[in-house]
Design goal:
Blueprint lengths: L1 H29 L15 E10 L2 E6 L2 E7 L2 E2 L7 H7 L5 H13 L5 E11 L5 E7 L5 H7 L4 E2 L9 H10 L1
Parallel strand pairs: 3-6
Antiparallel strand pairs: 1-2, 1-5, 2-3, 4-7, 5-6
């Protein structure tokens, strides 16, 4: 009788180990290779014209004839044009990586390029910038481009977290 219980316990432990191992393999190797679903341009997004790329995540756009500074939601690129005052207050400094991100965005968003923007739940930040999600005209999210190419890290600031899970997945796959 005792040997039977030992066999049952050993079988249960083996089953648990196999389950844990299969979950590890699935989440580490199989699921990782699954593509992250693109988020298409929402019907209520506005088409705007790029006037200037300030840095990797901040642009000036023409919105209904008015120049507006926009800041992407959900991502943060290193600083490239921060003033000395901002650098002292924030502890962040202009970096080579920030300049790389800025230059890359200037290449893909030259003056006159059209993009689509969708303001977040909280639509401005403390600097007066309009907080938006943004898409290239081909439908790809600009935030995805920055994350996939290593120019940005995810940044979650409630209440603007609609696509936070998506951005974490994109960053993980990059």
């Amino acid at each position: 009788m005792r040997k039977r219980w030992i066999r049952l316990i050993a079988a249960a432990i083996a089953l648990i180990c196999i389950t844990i191992l299969s979950q590890y393999v699935y989440f580490r190797f199989v699921k990782k290779d699954a593509p992250v679903q693109d988020i298409s341009i929402p019907g209520n997004a506005e088409r705007v014209e790029v006037v200037w790329v300030s840095d990797g995540d901040t642009y000036i756009v023409n919105r209904n004839g008015e120049e507006v500074t926009i800041r992407l939601i959900g991502v943060d690129t290193p600083e490239s044009v921060a003033s000395e005052e901002y650098q002292e207050k924030s502890g962040k400094h202009n970096t080579y990586k920030g300049r790389e991100a800025s230059e890359a965005m200037k290449e893909v968003l030259p003056k006159g390029t059209f993009i689509y923007i969708l303001p977040g739940k909280e639509d401005t930040d403390k600097y007066g910038r309009t907080l938006v999600y943004a898409w290239f005209e081909d439908g790809k999210m600009i935030e995805d481009f920055l994350l996939e190419n290593g120019y940005a890290k995810t940044l979650e600031i409630p209440p603007n977290t609609e696509y936070a899970g998506h951005f974490r997945e994109v960053e993980k796959k990059a």
